[in-house]
């Protein structure tokens, strides 16, 4: 590619040039958009013919043969002249379909092709995303099952709290992703076609075409909806489909953005503890200045893109709020940016997340070492109970342990030495009655509670049930180009 190429001299959104998949970029491409407009014009003409309008098979055949034969240079010239993208493409389509030209767009308004195409693209975009999200959940499911019994520190306020397991924490992540998958399924299944409604949703133009026959207008709406692959359409709308639909769609992505930001922040923190790492390729460079660096680049990318997804929800909410009466055009330019960016952003995140979950690296010895430093403090209650069973006084034992714990913590903080609380307990004659039981009091596996069982139950009762419809549609391993 030469330096004079437009690819180097014009701006391209990084979501398209660096991050998103080819299939998602195709879904939001001009070719997909404008060929779908032509399909919708064909569906309308087919249905109108079936219901008695004077449209010939020859006209339909001419339209059908030119669905993808789009002269973009001519369309650009027409739009420059008319300042109207739909009229530009009506004329461009008519130029290659001269016999059909008189009946293209018959009775319709711009939103017949514009809005209905958007709904088709949104629906198809969800169909690309759902298997990718299901794949990420499936990978996390396997990771959780593999590590369901591996004890680790859990944290509240980012301070050591109690003992959990690596698999249990993974299930916390998976549960949020499962909610996102269900949200995607719900919103995508509830998408309705705008249908055949005319300029302000009254269907007056179609009622005129069919000489006042309301039953035919209703059947026209049903037929075109069916041809477009939708199960239902809006009965009531203004000029556009309700812009609250866009807010519903982007609320799914905002929620998903919050989920993945939390997951990847957790991984970044665990990486700094050296307990867990995202995969790091053999020739990957973490820093141009520091050769030893192993930065969690993929998680950082996801967090960055997730903030974009979270922020985008404000656009459709504001757009819906200012749609005066039946419609204002100040929705158009905004939606051209926001809707593709949301889907491309979610797509890029899911591709990256899949590579992380495919190669998560766990360091059990580091996890055990960090646990050893904190576990003696967490075992205080167990030690107190053991002493009481041997006839000790609960309050007296509590004070003894508190004093020893403060001494041990001071050594750890001021001298950088490992935790020596257990050694201090062993050296104190007060605890002589339970020395033989001390090891069992600080056995990490006795602190994980129901964690392992919870993992198994969650996987069987929720994850596997939710993924049943995706088992033949999981995404194969992906390799990021950048």
From TrEMBL:
Signal peptide: none annotated. SMART domains: ADSL_C. One of its GO terms (molecular function) is N6-(1,2-dicarboxyethyl)AMP AMP-lyase (fumarate-forming) activity. It comes from the Eukaryota. It is an enzyme of class 4 (lyase). PROSITE patterns: FUMARATE_LYASES. One of its GO terms (cellular component) is cytosol. Keywords: Lyase, Purine biosynthesis. The keyword Lyase applies. One of its GO terms (biological process) is 'de novo' AMP biosynthetic process. Pathway: Purine metabolism; IMP biosynthesis via de novo pathway; 5-amino-1-(5-phospho-D-ribosyl)imidazole-4-carboxamide from 5-amino-1-(5-phospho-D-ribosyl)imidazole-4-carboxylate: step 2/2; Purine metabolism; AMP biosynthesis via de novo pathway; AMP from IMP: step 2/2. Belongs to the lyase 1 family. Adenylosuccinate lyase subfamily. Catalyzes two non-sequential steps in de novo AMP synthesis: converts (S)-2-(5-amino-1-(5-phospho-D-ribosyl)imidazole-4-carboxamido)succinate (SAICAR) to fumarate plus 5-amino-1-(5-phospho-D-ribosyl)imidazole-4-carboxamide, and thereby also contributes to de novo IMP synthesis, and converts succinyladenosine monophosphate (SAMP) to AMP and fumarate. Homotetramer. Residues from neighboring subunits contribute catalytic and substrate-binding residues to each active site. NCBIfam families: purB. This is Adenylosuccinate lyase. It comes from Biomphalaria pfeifferi (Bloodfluke planorb). The lineage of its organism: Eukaryota, Metazoa, Spiralia, Lophotrochozoa, Mollusca.
């Amino acid at each position: 590619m030469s330096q004079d190429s437009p690819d180097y001299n014009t701006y391209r959104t990084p979501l398209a040039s660096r991050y998103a998949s080819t299939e998602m970029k195709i879904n939001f491409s001009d070719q997909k958009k404008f060929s779908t407009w032509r399909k919708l014009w064909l569906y309308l003409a087919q249905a109108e013919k079936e219901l008695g309008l004077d449209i010939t098979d020859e006209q339909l055949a001419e339209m059908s043969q030119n669905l993808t034969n789009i002269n973009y240079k001519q369309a650009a010239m027409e739009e420059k002249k008319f300042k109207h993208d739909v009229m530009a493409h009506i004329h461009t389509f008519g130029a290659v379909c001269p016999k059909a030209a008189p009946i293209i767009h018959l009775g319709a308004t711009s939103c017949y092709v514009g809005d209905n195409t958007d709904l088709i693209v949104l629906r198809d975009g969800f169909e690309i995303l759902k298997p990718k999200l299901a794949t990420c959940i499936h990978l996390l499911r396997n990771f959780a099952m593999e590590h369901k019994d591996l004890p680790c520190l859990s944290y509240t306020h980012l301070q050591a709290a109690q003992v959990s397991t690596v698999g249990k924490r993974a299930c916390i992540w998976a549960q949020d992703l499962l909610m996102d998958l269900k949200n995607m399924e719900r919103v995508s299944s509830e998408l309705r076609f705008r249908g055949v409604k005319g300029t302000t949703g009254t269907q007056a133009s179609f009622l005129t075409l069919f000489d006042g026959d309301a039953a035919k207008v209703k059947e026209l709406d049903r037929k075109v909806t069916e041809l477009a692959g939708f199960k239902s359409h809006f009965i009531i709308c203004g000029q556009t489909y309700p812009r609250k639909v866009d807010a519903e769609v982007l609320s799914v992505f905002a929620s998903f953005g919050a989920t993945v930001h939390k997951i990847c922040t957790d991984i970044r923190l665990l990486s700094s503890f050296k307990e867990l790492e995202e995969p790091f390729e053999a020739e990957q460079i973490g820093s141009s200045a520091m050769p030893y660096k192993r930065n969690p680049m993929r998680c950082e990318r996801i967090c960055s893109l997730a903030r974009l997804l979270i922020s985008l929800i404000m656009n459709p909410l504001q757009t819906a709020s200012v749609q005066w009466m039946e419609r204002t055009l100040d929705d158009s330019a905004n939606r051209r940016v926001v809707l593709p960016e949301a889907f491309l952003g979610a797509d890029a995140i899911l591709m990256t997340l899949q590579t992380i979950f495919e190669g998560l690296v766990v360091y059990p010895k580091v996890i055990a070492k960090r646990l050893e430093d904190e576990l003696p403090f967490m075992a205080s209650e167990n030690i107190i109970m053991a002493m009481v069973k041997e006839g000790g006084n609960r309050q007296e034992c509590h004070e003894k342990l508190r004093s020893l714990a403060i001494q041990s913590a001071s050594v750890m903080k001021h001298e950088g030495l490992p935790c020596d609380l257990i050694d201090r307990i062993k050296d104190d004659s007060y605890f002589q009655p339970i020395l033989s039981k001390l090891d069992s009091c600080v056995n990490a596996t006795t602190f994980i509670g129901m964690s392992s069982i919870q993992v198994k139950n969650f996987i069987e009762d929720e994850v596997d049930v939710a993924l049943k419809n995706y088992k033949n549609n999981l995404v194969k391993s992906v390799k990021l180009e950048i």
